[in-house]
Amino acid sequence: MKIAVISDTHDQIWRLGEILPDLGKADVLLHCGDLCSPFMVHALGKELDIPVHIVLGNNDGDILALKNAADSYENLHLYARLASFDLAGLQVVMTHYPEIARPVAATGEYDLVVYGHDHTAFHEKVGNSLLLNPGEFMGLFGTSSWAIFDTETGNISLMQEDIPHTS
């Protein structure tokens, strides 16, 4: 199974549109928060035929509007600040926050723990758990990134693109 992981999209709808075809090649998408606006949820729901799991981040403002948008699509699942579920036999936890993710990974009860928030791509094995941050999608610090985790091989592919900034 190929799991796409993305975080901190921060309303970058045009950038999202560029990679939706690539995201759609995965078997599932995990979004670790900070979509910001409901139109981001609609873009994911309309364009992807795969399951999409989303946790809320600290910049997700109108939670009711985000929930209503997610409820419009059968393949979208919106969670509060923490989600835990089985994904084809893999025990997965999602959160936006590294200070939650690391202690959860350290329990050894989960196979995959994903998070965002600090805009830094990172992964490491913590006991039995893979702890993964796909980095920032928005490219605030010059690089837009997201990850693909292949459950069969254990490989993590970090997709990165430099984003030119104008002054």
Oligomerization? single chain
CATH architecture heading = 4-Layer Sandwich
Largest sheet, strands/sense/barrel:
6 strands, mixed
Identify low-pLDDT runs. Answer: none
- The number of distinct structural domains comes to 1
Distance between the termini: 41 Å
Individual helix count = 4
Assign an overall shape: globular
Number of strands: 11
User: What's the CATH topology label?
Assistant: Purple Acid Phosphatase, chain A, domain 2
CATH homology-level superfamily = Metallo-dependent phosphatases
Q: Which structural class fits the helix and strand makeup?
A: alpha/beta
Q: Radius of gyration over alpha carbons?
A: 15 Å
pLDDT averaged over residues:
93
Please report which band the strand proportion falls in: under 5%, 5-15%, 15-25%, 25-35%, 35-45% or over 45%.
35-45%
- Which CATH first-tier class would you pick? Alpha Beta
Instruction: Name the helix and strand elements from N-terminus to C-terminus, one letter apiece.
Output: EHEHEHEEEHEEEEE
Please explain how this structure is put together.
This protein is an alpha/beta fold. It has one domain (2-160): Metallo-dependent phosphatases (Purple Acid Phosphatase, chain A, domain 2, 4-Layer Sandwich), CATH 3.60.21. The protein is built from 4 helices and 11 strands; from the N terminus they run βαβαβαβββαβββββ. The strands form 2 sheets. Strands 4-3-2-1-10-11 form a 6-stranded mixed β-sheet. A 5-stranded mixed β-sheet has the order 5-6-7-9-8, with helices on one face. Strand 6 (90-95), helix 4 and strand 7 form a beta-alpha-beta unit. Helix 2 (38-47) packs parallel to helix 3 (63-71). The longest helix has 11 residues, at 13-23.
